[in-house]
Amino acid sequence: MPSDSALRIVWIYPDLLSTYGDQGNVLVLERRAQLRGVETETIHVRSADPVPETGDLYLIGGGEDRPQILAAERLRRDGGLHRAVAGGAVLLAVCAGYQIMGSTFGGEEGQPVDGIGLLDISSSRGAARAVGELVAEVDAALNLPTLTGFENHMGVTRLGPGVKALSRTIVGTGNGNGFEGCYAGHVVGTYLHGPALARNPALADLLLSWCVGDLAPLDDSRYEALRQERLASVLPG
Ligand code: GLN
């Protein structure tokens, strides 16, 4: 039985949005919290269910165009995620989930579809599908190592003045204009699958630290081996 002080992780709409290993982000957060002695309680919220407002850390993944449109409609109608973020909850939104957080995104025919307006971004269909490895240097203010991940999307994303770019793209497309992802307050959006947090444990720790404060370092040699292997596969030696 989790205690009242357990870190509450909310995994939004696994039945609609969870491609390319995004659920691994939940596992990484649970594990890295538990290794620091932080108990966790994870709630999987299917799309027919209300999004609880009492979570500490919310995650939403990527997916295909139609489930993405459905997810946006349901999240907007539900309102729980808005209220949670307004109350200070942390959110990691990946790919389709990232696009949904903006004012608009491209539907299956490229038509503009309303997002849920949690981030000052807007997305539309790009000229070509962006698919493959992605490497990006994170905004210095966040003090994180190079991001590594995998992307597969048609959308491109413009950032408004209410958000900052998460990183500058070295390999891959990301937002489509030399930058990858964005952040505002404790909300992070990214095109990175792979899953993002297994390949970027420092990003997992940043999200956790926003919930529980400073964290003791861990032995990350296995994560590091994965990172080096992936980075070496696309960066010139
Ligand atoms: N359907 C969106 C796009 O193609 C998101 C894809 C994804 O989440 N992988 O841009």
TrEMBL record:
Keyword Ribosomal protein: no
Pathway per the UniProt entry: Cell wall biogenesis; peptidoglycan biosynthesis
Record-listed E.C. numbers: 6.3.5.13, 3.5.1.2
InterPro entries, A to Z: Class_I_gatase-like, CobQ_GATase1, GATase_3, Lipid_II_synth_GatD
Active-site residues annotated for this sequence: 95 (nucleophile), 193
Domain of life: Bacteria
Annotated GO MF terms: carbon-nitrogen ligase activity on lipid II; glutaminase activity; transferase activity
BP GO annotations: cell wall organization; cobalamin biosynthetic process; peptidoglycan biosynthetic process; regulation of cell shape
Catalytic activity from the UniProt record: L-glutamine + H2O = L-glutamate + NH4(+); beta-D-GlcNAc-(1->4)-Mur2Ac(oyl-L-Ala-gamma-D-Glu-L-Lys-D-Ala-D-Ala)-di-trans,octa-cis-undecaprenyl diphosphate + L-glutamine + ATP + H2O = beta-D-GlcNAc-(1->4)-Mur2Ac(oyl-L-Ala-D-isoglutaminyl-L-Lys-D-Ala-D-Ala)-di-trans,octa-cis-undecaprenyl diphosphate + L-glutamate + ADP + phosphate + H(+)
Keywords: Cell shape, Cell wall biogenesis/degradation, Glutamine amidotransferase, Hydrolase, Ligase, Peptidoglycan synthesis, Transferase
CDD domains the record matches: GATase1_CobQ
Positions contributing to substrate binding: 129
Domain CobB/CobQ-like glutamine amidotransferase: 8-200
Record-linked PROSITE patterns: GATASE_COBBQ
Gene3D superfamilies recorded: 3.40.50.880
Record bears the keyword Transferase: yes
Function field: The lipid II isoglutaminyl synthase complex catalyzes the formation of alpha-D-isoglutamine in the cell wall lipid II stem peptide. The GatD subunit catalyzes the hydrolysis of glutamine to glutamate and ammonia. The resulting ammonia molecule is channeled to the active site of MurT.
UniProt xrefs under PANTHER family: DETHIOBIOTIN SYNTHETASE (PTHR21343), LIPID II ISOGLUTAMINYL SYNTHASE (GLUTAMINE-HYDROLYZING) SUBUNIT GATD (PTHR21343:SF9)
Similarity comment text for this entry: Belongs to the CobB/CobQ family. GatD subfamily.
Assembly and oligomerization: Forms a heterodimer with MurT.
Protein's recorded name: Lipid II isoglutaminyl synthase (glutamine-hydrolyzing) subunit GatD
Organism: Nonomuraea longispora
Name of the gene: gatD
